[in-house]
Design goal:
This protein is 35% helix and 22% strand. It is an alpha/beta fold and 986 residues long. It folds into six domains: 134 residues, no CATH class; 100 residues, no CATH class; 99 residues, no CATH class; 92 residues, no CATH class; 250 residues, 3-Layer(aba) Sandwich (Rossmann fold), CATH 3.40.50.10810; 232 residues, P-loop containing nucleotide triphosphate hydrolases (Rossmann fold, 3-Layer(aba) Sandwich), CATH 3.40.50.300. A seven-stranded parallel sheet has the order 30-31-29-32-33-28-34. Strands 1, 2, 3, 4, 5 and 6 form a six-stranded mixed sheet that branches. Helix 5 packs antiparallel against helix 6 and helix 24 runs antiparallel to helix 25. It is elongated.
Length: 986
């Protein structure tokens, strides 16, 4: 039922005006608002700095007199309805924010928000008429000012003689010069909208901006600008004309204050002022030791004078992002090497992983300059690295088919508890951590056999009365004989060595007539010593420094033995990388020797033909693979060159070499001991098998007291260790000869140079020959018009030279072939590092230096790297000269001149250069005035490649290729077609 029209209207609410849809107050006239800006003067310093009302308005005269304190006041202004001028009227802070209808909702809200922004630091409660903008800290202030224009709120000066500008941009810098008294004067340098501002007229607004007061007669101009202002910059601006640093405070200023400024703004020197380098970040590792063998870690950066910041990249002005990235990359390399995974800024490790992290990773990080800070009770972990000593005994059980086993395992003299060891082996674990913090790898051959024994004896759950072994498993039993038992060869060796007791000195021998070289005095003494041991059928270790002619001394011994009536051949086992060097030196110094080269398992057979051979040269890889063949021959002597290859008696190679039958064995290495005395024992086991027959006794008598400080309870530690050390030296003295370069320096020329021939691998050779044939056909067809085709020819020559170094330089897909040159370089560098020498490594191909750097990284050898892309050249040089790295990789153009690097005494030239003078310049980086040590130069040549042709050209025409690498003339007229044909001749 519908209501009557009048009744219906009576029950409805009254209708509102349609203008409410336009927003509050839009339908009526509003009072316009502006933000009033006024310079205020506060005369006395005792006034409350947080007061919202400075004492009075500042005039141009006040600004000029610089009396009292000038502040920037802000407040709302309204437009006068009568005059149209901006006046204070009734527009107080409270009135504006509480009267949206009168002033407009958007403008009222804008002022309310501005008041909130200011109140964060200025005041609480009701605001006064004027707020001091100087004290507003919030950076929101500037965006809010710019937003005011969008709602119709201009910035207005309260005085007609003053104008107000909001700048688009500002920049704060600083200069440091000298004052008249010889001290420092630090001055701000402020740019506003591209013009230079007078620092005396600049004041800060909190730490987020500034305003400049310019006096022009009786008028003032106030310019506001947003710019971040750190605390030290704030203090500098507050000083106005600058900050004076007395001469006696200069060092303290640069140490403490300058970094605070220099990290935040640009600082430029003026006049005779040299600014120091800003403090670098230092990585800090926080280690927390928790219960249950758990270690938690976290990385941070520490800056001197600033404290610590997060490890993750950040935008804090104090931080040096580039330096942090470089350090982070170095730590990443260490982390990847040790753990095989990417570095994380924090994490934790448990059980064996925690022990390895503490004993391996933490020292490696400390070696990289990481500061370690520890919290919690630090547990001491210790890795047991010795060979497990296993004793197995059997007792007949009630079951006639089984024996009960008694198993005793010792590592480094530490008896391993039975239960955790067997549990770990049965569950296939890789390592075991004991309750005392000792841990060790279960990846040992002896423990592998023990694991098999466990598997064949049944599950651990069934071992209620201990493990058992079947009487039918006698083959397993033989694997666990006591390693300390005397062997027949050891007894025989000691019987021979008794002959030394009757000798009073090493008698001289004549240099064999079959040696064409003139032996230097120390080389002649080496021959006398080798011949003396040979006459007693005793081996030894020739441990001369690198570059003193160890190969020549051994060749002289072989010729001496042949001329003395020895008919059997000698066997020299060498690294693959020096196979060609041995052959060339034998041809050069002992041309009468009949040499057989066996560089692969398909080499000449070891049969009756050996009657016509004086010396067989083979590689360690071939010796291991053809162990049976070599063991079947009775050799006059066995020579182990670069004997560090056999320093581990647990390897198949060491066991293979030990099986070879020879009257004497000579180990040749400049580093008979790199990490532990156990390496020396491994070499003596091969060269003097009865000197220290028992590994266990050697550990107890020498390794434990000398290396580990373990001494009997009734002995004094220092004296006991010294006695053991002297005893060890006394026992090995007759069988080890070592001369350092410094020791024989008077007998050496100022500089020794040697061609180091490197033979390509089979796959490298095959690829090289294929490319050679292709490039040869192309180049020979272009030589008729060399001037026109010189760039194409040069490109082919460069390609072949790079291919001689490493196939990966030409085609990344061939990188897997590798580079024998880098193999040789790494072997030499490792030996030099162990001997305390330092080397310069030159190449004109920066890409090849990058490959060398990657190999050094993988081997954990620190190095410096200098090429044309290096930005901070002097810093790189200083990092090498200060002794941080043993190797300096240098490109020809970047380091062929202008450097003095007398800290190095070895030089490796990775590739022959067209200009011999360039090589001489490179060598002279270290061989120059100030060099106290002998300099050894190795020119590495890939045999059978274009590098040999380049070397020949150097010898025949020293100036032939002067312009080949010159930027202005790649090929000079002196380079003939015949010369280039010679490069491609077979």
């Amino acid at each position: 039922m519908s209501l009557p029209h009048d009744a219906s209207r009576a029950e409805r609410p009254s209708s509102a005006d349609w203008r409410i849809m336009l927003g509050a107050g839009q339908g009526s006239a509003e009072t316009a608002l502006a933000l009033g800006i006024e310079l205020r003067l506060r005369d006395g310093r005792g006034a409350n700095p947080w007061a919202s009302r400075p004492q009075r308005t500042a005039t141009a005269r006040d600004v000029g007199k610089r009396s009292g304190e000038i502040l920037l006041g802000i407040r709302p202004l309204e437009r006068s309805a009568a005059t149209g001028a901006w006046v204070q009227g009734t527009a107080t802070w409270d009135a504006v924010r509480r009267s949206p209808t009168q002033y407009g909702r958007d403008r009222s809200r804008w002022f309310a928000d501005l008041l909130s922004i200011a109140r964060d630091t200025l005041l609480s409660g009701t605001a006064g008429d004027w707020l001091v903008a100087d004290l507003i800290e919030s950076g929101l202030f500037w965006g809010h000012l710019r937003a005011g224009a969008e709602v119709g709120i201009p910035l207005v000066a309260t005085q007609k003689s003053t104008t107000v500008i909001l700048a688009d941009r500002a920049e704060i810098r600083a200069t440091i010069g000298r004052d008249d008294a010889g001290g420092l004067l630090v001055r701000p340098d402020v740019m506003i909208d591209g013009r230079e501002a007078d620092p005396a007229g600049v004041r800060t607004i909190g730490h987020s901006g500034l305003y400049e007061v310019e006096q022009r007669g009786t008028t003032l101009r106030v310019t506001l600008a947003e710019v971040p202002i750190s605390a030290p910059v704030h203090a500098l601006l507050g000083a106005g004309a600058g900050v004076e640093v007395p001469a006696h405070d200069e060092a303290a200023f640069f140490r403490d204050a300058y970094p605070l400024l220099g990290r935040r703004i640009e600082v430029r020197p003026v006049g005779r002022v040299e600014l120091p380098v800003l403090p670098a970040p230092r990585p800090v590792l926080e280690l927390s030791f928790l219960r249950g063998d758990t270690v938690r870690y976290a990385f941070e950066w520490e800056y001197r004078g600033f404290g610590r910041v997060p490890f993750a990249p950040g935008g804090d002005a104090v931080r040096d992002a580039v330096a942090e990235e470089m350090l982070r990359d170095a730590l990443q390399a260490v982390w990847m090497e040790q753990l095989g995974e990417d570095l994380t800024s924090e994490g934790s490790f448990h059980d064996v992983a925690a022990a390895e992290f503490v004993t391996r990773m933490v020292p490696a990080l400390e070696a990289e300059g990481v500061t370690v800070s520890v919290s919690g009770r630090r547990k001491s972990y210790h890795e047991l690295t010795g060979e497990p000593q296993i004793t197995v005994s059997t007792v007949e059980s009630s079951d006639p088919d089984w024996f009960d086993l008694g198993v005793l395992v010792k590592i480094d003299g530490r008896t391993i508890p039975f239960e955790p060891l067997f549990t770990a082996l049965s569950k296939g674990r890789k390592k075991l951590l004991l309750v005392d913090g000792s841990y060790f790898s279960l990846n040992h051959r002896a423990l592998d056999r023990l694991r098999e024994l466990i598997d064949e004896s049944g599950d651990l759950d069934e071992w209620e009365t201990g493990p058992r072994i079947s009487r039918y498993q006698t083959d397993l039993w033989e694997e666990f004989e006591d390693l300390a038992d005397e062997a027949v060869p050891a007894v025989a060796w000691r019987a021979i060595a008794d002959g030394l007791r009757r000798a009073t000195s090493v008698p001289p021998v004549a240099v064999p007539s079959g040696i064409t070289a003139e032996l230097r005095p120390y080389q002649k003494e080496g021959l006398d010593w080798l011949a003396f041991l040979w006459s007693h059928r005793l081996g030894g270790i020739l441990a001369d420094d690198m570059g003193l002619g160890k190969t020549l001394q051994l060749l002289a011994l072989i010729v001496h033995a042949r001329e003395s009536g020895e008919k059997r051949p000698f066997l020299a086992i060498v690294p693959t990388s020096v196979l060609a060097t041995w052959r060339s030196e034998a041809e050069r110094f002992a041309p009468a020797l009949r040499v057989m080269l066996r560089g692969s398992t398909q080499g000449p057979p070891l049969d009756g033909s050996l009657r016509e051979v004086d010396l067989v040269i083979t590689t360690y890889a071939v010796a291991r693979l053809d162990e049976t063949e070599y063991a079947a021959v009775e050799w006059a002597g066995l020579i182990l060159d670069e004997a560090q290859f056999v320093k581990n008696p647990a390897t198949k190679l060491h066991r293979a070499v030990a099986s070879f039958r020879a009257d004497v064995t000579f180990a040749v290495t400049g580093t008979p001991m790199e990490n532990s005395l156990s390496e020396l024992w491994a070499l003596l086991k091969l060269t003097a098998p009865g000197l220290f027959a028992s590994a266990r006794k050697f550990r107890e008598h020498y390794i434990q007291p000398i290396e580990q400080g373990k001494v009997p309870e009734n002995e004094e530690g220092g004296a006991y260790r010294q006695r053991r050390l002297e005893q060890l030296r006394r026992r090995i003295r007759p069988l080890l000869l070592r001369r350092t370069k410094e020791l024989v320096a008077p007998d050496l020329p100022a500089k020794q140079e040697q061609i180091l021939e490197v033979e390509l691998s089979s796959s490298h050779r095959a690829l090289y020959d294929v490319v050679l044939q292709r490039e040869r056909q192309k180049v020979l067809g272009l030589l008729e018009d060399l001037d026109r085709n010189r760039f194409i020819v040069f490109r082919s020559l460069t390609l072949m030279r790079m291919l001689s170094l490493a196939p990966g330089l030409i085609d990344p897909e061939d990188a897997k072939i590798g580079s024998r040159k880098l193999d040789v370089l790494l072997e030499r560098v490792i030996e030099l590092q162990a001997e305390g020498h330092r080397a310069l490594v030159f190449s004109q191909f920066t890409s090849f230096l990058d490959l060398a750097a990657a190999r050094l990284d993988a081997a954990g050898i620190p190095y410096a790297h200098l090429d044309g892309s290096t930005r901070h050249r002097q810093k790189v040089v200083e990092s090498f000269t200060s002794g941080e790295q043993p190797v300096f990789l240098i490109s020809l153009k970047a380091g062929g001149f202008g450097l003095t690097l007398t800290e190095a005494d070895y030089v490796f030239l990775l590739d022959p250069w067209w200009n011999p003078a360039a090589e001489a310049q490179a060598v002279d980086r270290t061989h120059r005035i100030g060099q106290d040590s002998q300099v050894f130069v190795y020119r590495m040549i890939s045999t059978g490649t274009i590098e040999e042709k380049v070397l020949d050209l150097q010898r025949r025409k020293a100036r032939l290729f002067t312009a080949v690498l010159d930027d202005e003339a790649l090929f000079a007229q002196s380079l003939s077609a015949d010369d280039i044909r010679g490069l491609f001749e077979g």
